[in-house]
Specification:
Helices cover about 0% and strands about 50% of the residues.
Length: about 170
């Protein structure tokens, strides 16, 4: 059983011009409700190694702009995102590298009658995250513990949506 975190978001959208929409939102993700993941195996000889996670409640922020062409057939979009890390340095691991992230997004949407096509691209840059060395146990080093180190990541995300509106 996994208890997933609650997400609290407050946002606002302004339309300073009929064709221009500006939006902003921010809020925390309550990862402290998900402090560990323990996988129990059916085979009795399999070792249960809980994965420690989610001691932090990070904040996220989003800014977006959307501009509609005359006739509202084509929408052009851009956005910025910032996400704090949900992993404490002592729980950072290769199985779940995490860090603060900056995202840059662009996209477009096209509408014809009931049909719509949306295409979006996001580049997420993960800021360097340094994992703290694992605590030494009384019986010595535990190989299941995550190694200390610096994690560097980036992600390119592409999304395509085709939609049909009801009558």
């Amino acid at each position: 059983t996994v208890t997933w975190p609650d997400i609290i978001v407050v946002g606002v959208m302004l339309r300073p011009l009929p064709a221009l929409e500006l939006s902003a939102e921010a809020g925390p993700t309550l990862w402290s409700t998900f402090d560990r993941l323990a996988i129990d195996f059916e085979q009795p000889n399999m070792r249960v190694s809980p994965i420690e996670r989610g001691q932090l409640n990070p904040w996220s922020a989003r800014l977006g702009v959307q501009w509609w062409t005359p006739g509202r057939a084509l929408a052009l979009r851009a956005g910025l995102t910032f996400d704090q890390s949900s992993a404490a340095p002592a729980t950072l691991a290769p199985s779940g590298p995490d860090s603060e992230r900056l995202g840059f997004c662009v996209g477009a949407g096209y509408r014809v009658g009931r049909w719509g096509v949306d295409l979006g691209y996001m580049f997420a840059h993960f800021l360097d995250a340094t994992a703290a060395p694992p605590p030494l146990r009384a019986d010595g080093y535990d190989p299941a513990q995550s190694p200390a180190g610096v994690y560097r990541s980036a992600a390119h995300q592409l999304a395509l949506t085709v939609s049909v509106r009801g009558q």
